[in-house]
Amino acid sequence: MNYGIAFTPLVPPIVLWLALGAIIVIAAVLLLGRSRGAAIRVAALALIALALANPSFTREDREPLSSVAAVIVDKSPSQNFGDRNKQTAQAQEALVNELKKIKGLEVRVVDAGQADGETDGTHLFSALSSALSDVPVDRVAGAFLITDGRVHDIPANMSALGFQAPLQALITGQPNERDRRIAITAAPRFGIVGQPQTVTFRLDDQGVSGEHAKVVIRRDGEAISERDLVSGQTSKVDIDIKHEGPNIVEIEAAPLAGELTPVNNRAVVSIDGVRDKLRVLLVSGEPHSGERTWRNLLKSDASVDLVHFTILRPPEKQDGTPINELSLIAFPTRELFQQKINEFQLIIFDRYARQGVLPIAYFDNIARYVRNGGAVLVSAGPDYASNTSIWRTPLDSVLPAEPVGVTEKPFYAHLSDAGKRHPVTRGLEGANFEPPHWSRFFRTVDTRNATSPPVMTGADGKPLLLLSRYGEGRVALLLSDHIWLWARGYEGGGPHLDLLRRMSHWLMKQPDLDEEALRLQVQGHDLVVIRQTMADTVPPVTVTSPSGATRELTLTQGEPGEWRATMPANELGLWQATDGTLKALINVGPTNPKEFSEVTSTTDTLKPLAQATGGDARRVADGASVDIPRIVPVHSSSVFRGDGWMGVRMRDASVVKGVGVLPMFAGVIGLLLLLGAFAATWLREGR
Predict the structure, then answer these.
(1) Which of 114, 210, 251, 642 has the most crowded CB, counting CB atoms within 10 A?
(2) For residue 654, is pLDDT > 70?
(3) Residue 423 lies in a domain
């Protein structure tokens, strides 16, 4: 219990102070004038002033509160190396038992640092802050960290810690550990497809020096370079960006004898390939209603550099107008189809027929361009079935179907079985209805001897859209020139933008639209394996984690042509998957996690902050046995460490459970005091 005196004045404070001042003046006059009974008169006046102040005796019933100590246990991936997990478990058990022996101490144990794929590094102090968030500062007795010392959210100073109590660190691992790692010193995030990018890296060895190591550089799993480096040496490698999207570069060093772990011998760089400009050549054989559909689509894409020519006046047309009065641009056939043909990613023939503009030799150039990796799209109308069809040129060797006539009748386009699986046409809006929620077409070109199954069919189930590969290149054949009806919204229109954009990107080898592909994706804390295929079945997929552990997954079909499987992404780093033919790579979490950048245990990182709070950082093992210092309660000191012991700061915090108040001048007590004072004054005067 705590006792005290409290004042609750009966008059405003200014009145009380004025009364006190008047009493002091009267007392001074009486005492200096040596008046008889001055002391009794002053005492009576003082009692009057005290009564106005209304003093009360108080009694507080208090309940002591326990002090709180937090134990933060490092569960980060680096704790899996060596015997650290075992040491951690033993140190935690011994520490908690010691703390629970201290009377009036509450112990809170929190696991922290688990890899979640989002947080880079080991964050223990954020967990400490959360553990003590509901504890007043004057109740915190201290904090204990059981860790390997590699912590990445250490506060800059003691004040940022948030409490005035000792921080103690118990370090797992062994002294004199050795490890090898590849450190990336400079790497680009993006690169232009077709242009090299430079990656700079360093071979770091901890615990040894002067060691040589063989280093292998891979791009998307394929070895592209090999070199011999010595510890501490920096090297550079030029990486050719082969495709759009992530280009995964692995730099792996041979293991170091007796090293702690090989997991950080490999560093990963993900360079996103982007195209400077997609150069597209659009050749329209004649003006027609659908011509602007292609032009508007391609011009709306900022990444496309479009060259568009429309044949308005073929050479055989003679209308008597002098050449020097024509405002037409001559078709630069030699420049486009001989000198610069390989600069284009896509060539589109929109209702183009032989009109004497392109010599036959140039069609041979176009066929060779396709076989070497180029792309051609033919949007066909009646011209494709005419005597002047481009089929009747050397281009027939790469075109996927031979024309035999034209059917003029209304029909709805449908996805074929292959089209329901092909990424170009799969999931087109409105395709799942019968008839599809698309406007009708009114003309299709009849063909025969198709080299690939159609992905869309037209009138009477005849092919409408064919997608084919020839050599290294690709060809698309659209056998109707009425796609513009979808663009104009006739009868509700159709998904022309999705279809034409996907088709163009498939031709230009967008990886996401490949028919046969194996991909890895991270969704939340899960790794998703996706197999795109045109086949009816898929083989199991073997997934390899960053630590080298393998697991075989059986995929299940979701959408047509797409098979999936999911597993926990419980490790940071490079994951690999293969089905024996295809291979996929993905990096989970940061490209080069801080968790694995330095893995040797150390007391150096936590010792400065711990000692600033009066605590210390010490190892729990030096060999096979685990031994923690004695834990001592300390009540009044700024030092909480010593030879063989660590301390916690015991607090004297309490909470008020009840209050008792006894007014000194209330009721009979106050009346008797005042009457007694006046009676004493009267008696003194009577004498």
Answers:
(1) 251
(2) no
(3) yes
